[in-house]
Amino acid sequence: MSDTPAGSLYVVATPIGNLDDLSPRAARVLGEVAVIAAEDTRHSGRLLRHLGLSRPMLSLHEHNEAARVDQLDARLVAGQDVALVSDAGTPLISDPGFVLVRELRARGRRIVPVPGPCALVAALSAAGLPTDRFLFQGFLPAKGGARRERLEALAAREETLVFYESPHRIRDTLADLATTLGERRVVLARELTKAFETFLDGSADELLARMEEDSDQARGEFVVMVAGAAPRGDAESSAVEADVLLSALLAEGVGVKQAAAVAARVLGGAKKVWYGRLQALKDGH
Ligand code: SAM
């Protein structure tokens, strides 16, 4: 056993656009560690050059993260400090690092956050939507069916909903928001901290129309924030209201599967749950 105290893993947030957002502490840590594990070493190399720093780097991305754990832990055990950075913002937030942090924490290593930019926090801080409770969902599924299903499952949530989105899918996502969540206030934060930073505010349909008028509005990186569902009355009265709607659908001859889809869209919640309740009503329970 060596007497050298183990080193620390510093989880360092880096800018999401404006390089001045890197904190002095982050710069100091990046300049002092023995090695920097980076999602993309070329990308982070440019940041280091901007800071006038030169440190050994190694890549850590979703395809090699598990394999890097022992390698980086050996550095820590040898008493070296290590920094983890991603391409932009806070590592682990829709970025690599979770496996590394989980494993090193399980081994009792010291893990130190060096906080800083994070697109979802920056977006929420300026959107004017409630922030007392919010539900961050990362990226929605790429395929339309799965995306709409995820949104339907979120329809009854009363917290502000927050998503990350790319320019390739922003229009499809807005269209799906309109069909699954209906008339809700949506705030789009685009290109945060960069030259073309823009906040657009309106219903999903209105924002789509803005993009039709001005295709530049669909370019860049986005945080999509959606107002939560209007609060419902007490659980019991909403359950009674739901049963009235479900019974009416069955009485009109709508099939259980289709009625479950309608209920999920109108009342929120998962189709599967409504399917079960409809079966029970049909069976007279
Ligand atoms: N770890 C990062 C963070 O802390 O925000 C997020 C990384 S994730 C791979 C990239 C996504 O974050 C983008 O697709 C976009 O949704 C969002 N994002 C990152 N930078 C942004 C910016 N400057 N403006 C708006 N959204 C941004």
Automatic annotation (TrEMBL):
The gene is rsmI. It is an enzyme of class 2 (transferase). The keyword S-adenosyl-L-methionine applies. This is Ribosomal RNA small subunit methyltransferase I. Residues 9-207 form the Tetrapyrrole methylase domain. GO terms for molecular function: rRNA (cytosine-2'-O-)-methyltransferase activity. Keywords: Cytoplasm, Methyltransferase, rRNA processing, S-adenosyl-L-methionine, Transferase. It comes from the Bacteria. PROSITE patterns: RSMI (PS01296). It is found in: Cytoplasm. GO terms for cellular component: cytoplasm. Its main location: cytoplasm. Belongs to the methyltransferase superfamily. RsmI family. Residues 237-282 form the RsmI HTH domain. Catalyzes the 2'-O-methylation of the ribose of cytidine 1402 (C1402) in 16S rRNA. It comes from Halomonas daqiaonensis. InterPro entries: 4pyrrol_Mease, 4pyrrol_Methylase_sf, 4pyrrole_Mease_sub1, 4pyrrole_Mease_sub2, rRNA_ssu_MeTfrase_I, RsmI_HTH, SAM_MeTrfase_RsmI_CS. HAMAP family: 16SrRNA_methyltr_I. Its EC number is 2.1.1.198. It catalyses: cytidine(1402) in 16S rRNA + S-adenosyl-L-methionine = 2'-O-methylcytidine(1402) in 16S rRNA + S-adenosyl-L-homocysteine + H(+).
